[in-house]
Design a protein that fits this description.
Largest interface: A-B, 25 and 21 residues
Oligomer: heterodimer
Shape of chain A: globular
Distance between the termini of chain A: 36 Å
Structural class of chain B: mainly beta
Helix content of chain A: under 10%
Number of strands of chain B: 11
Order of helices and strands of chain A: EEEEEEEEEEE
Number of helices of chain B: 0
Strand content of chain B: over 45%
Number of strands of chain A: 11
Radius of gyration of chain A: 13 Å
Number of helices of chain A: 0
Radius of gyration of chain B: 13 Å
């Protein structure tokens, strides 16, 4: 298996633009997590899905952020409109509900 | 107060030293405790996992959990330059929602 796949790996955009981050989880995993990592706040859980259904989105910072999982092999995290304080590395992770989460390589987002 | 507190470091040690990394937490409901290792510009990878209180050893790595003190540790013996990375503790009640520490950056000097 190729592991968790994220795209793009790097994204540079201007304030006010829409940003869409994509994730393909490991086949067979029924949990999918979106995290944001910054130096100041560390690794923060934004939202997680179980069987394509959002279970806990309490970490989503505000209405500008939205996440979808239309099927078991694809998820998106959208920021609209983006702001400079959204600059961070965004990780997607998947698991089968056990002790290990498998992380993707991350998307490094810079909002100018 | 954050659910999990971890000293960000950085921690710099000579090769061969014993390294001690620690986290404290506030939620007594946490049952499962993990340590992840993250190399620069990579995603975190699971290093060790412990259930409830006690010790677990895996090669040069030992994880300790003290639930009465809400304190977990990771010890690295005979540290190597290849151990240089950021180490994140994580914990969960039920493998659904995970709470991560902010990570401690470790540098092992040759």
């Amino acid at each position: 298996d190729a592991g968790v796949i994220q795209s793009p790996r790097h994204e540079v955009t201007e304030m006010g633009q829409e940003v869409t981050l994509r994730c393909k989880p490991i086949s067979g995993h029924d949990y999918l997590f979106w995290y944001r990592q910054t130096m100041m706040r560390g690794l923060e859980l934004l939202i997680y899905f179980n069987n394509n259904v959002p279970i806990d989105d309490s970490g989503m910072p505000e209405d500008r952020f939205s996440a979808k999982m239309p099927n078991a092999s694809f998820s998106t995290l959208k920021i609209q409109p983006s702001e400079p304080r959204d600059s961070a590395v965004y990780f997607c992770a998947s698991s089968s509900g056990g002790d290990e989460q498998f992380f993707g390589p991350g998307t490094r987002l810079t909002v100018l | 107060q954050k659910e999990v507190e971890q000293d960000p470091g950085p921690l710099s040690v000579p090769e061969g030293a014993i390294v001690s990394l620690n986290c404290t937490y506030s939620n007594s409901a946490f049952q499962y405790f993990m340590w992840y290792r993250q190399y620069s510009r990579k995603g975190p990878e699971l290093l060790m996992y412990t259930y409830s209180s006690g010790n677990k050893e895996d090669g040069r790595f030992t994880a300790q959990v003290d639930k009465s003190s809400k304190y977990i540790s990771l010890f690295i013996r005979d540290s190597q330059p290849s151990d240089s990375a950021t180490y994140l503790c994580a914990m969960t009640r039920n493998f659904n929602k995970f709470y991560f520490g902010s990570g401690t950056k470790l540098n092992v000097k040759p």
